[in-house]
């Protein structure tokens, strides 16, 4: 039975600024630190820079816990990328029978709301994976809210 999780943050920035933050690879990596580091091929600065063919892997990314402990790899695969709105990622990943991550932006007053919804079916014990994902995405959303306060990616 898949694990279902949802995280959201209300930001004071416009949806277009939030969109830049959630698609810029430097911002994405900053969101993931210090818990996770992922490799991204040189030259890719933004998810929008790539030609997305729904369901086709864009690249293989190596994942490291705390930046040094190898965790496996992900073949980053987007099912959809809707500029200014969000994306749906469903990537083959080490340790997962299913990894589905939907990230979207909604208008929230004069700002925006960033919503992450996960559906995962891990090979490892579900309680362990669920606890890690809750910690990891809670940390990502704290980074988003701090970025909102500083306006710096």
Shape: globular
Q: What radius of gyration results from the CA coordinates? A: 15 Å
Number of helices: 3
- The H/E string reads EHHEEEEEEH
Low-confidence stretches: none
As a percent range, the share of helical residues equals 25-40%
Report, as a whole number of angstroms, the end-to-end distance.
36 Å
CATH class: Alpha Beta
Quaternary class: single chain
CATH superfamily: START domain
Helix-strand category: alpha+beta
Can you list the strand order of the major beta sheet? 1-7-6-5-4-3-2
CATH topology: Alpha-D-Glucose-1,6-Bisphosphate, Chain A, domain 4
Largest sheet: 7 strands, antiparallel
Q: Could you give a quick summary of the protein structure above?
A:
By secondary structure, the protein is α+β, with helices and mostly antiparallel strands.
